[in-house]
Design brief:
three-stranded antiparallel sheet, five-stranded mixed barrel, mainly beta, 8 strands, OB fold (Dihydrolipoamide Acetyltransferase, E2P), 137 residues, 1 helix
Length: 137
């Protein structure tokens, strides 16, 4: 079964194109007084409200700040993968992303503080999606 697909728009198209090339892209505020990294894609900076955002490539490295083990997915397209870990990951550049952590233990042991690295997996026709893999401890 096909998994739910993102709604690609002019605001987020660059992000999704990056995923399909194996790049984790985030926005960066061009205001010198701000300069914060922004995720999810937006039309203006949520911190200073500046309207000029550039796209930069993230290192893809981060730390798990929260997680859960999904036993019963909300969409049949994910059923074959259950159980799986879904986590909030703070990437080095600052923003928090939510994604599946592949090959993570599903025994409810704590993964908080564990390093991860971004990876990209097929998620439908001509689309890849960001996932994370556990990094070295």
């Amino acid at each position: 079964m096909l998994k739910p697909q993102p709604r690609i728009s002019s605001v987020n198209r660059t992000f999704w194109e990056g995923c399909s090339r194996g790049q984790l892209l985030v926005q960066c505020c061009r205001n010198d007084a701000c300069g914060r990294k922004v995720f999810y894609p937006r039309v203006c900076c949520p911190y200073c409200r500046g309207g000029e955002l550039d796209w930069i490539e993230s290192s893809g490295r981060g730390l798990i700040i929260s997680h859960t083990t999904v036993h019963r997915p909300h969409h049949d397209g994910f059923s074959a993968e259950a159980p799986y870990v879904f986590a909030a990951v703070e990437i080095e550049e600052g923003p928090c992303l939510y994604a599946q952590v592949l090959d993570a233990p599903t025994d409810n042991s704590s993964l908080i503080g564990r390093p991860v690295i971004a990876d990209f997996v097929p998620h439908g026709p001509d689309l890849h999606i960001t996932v994370f893999r556990l990094g070295n401890v």
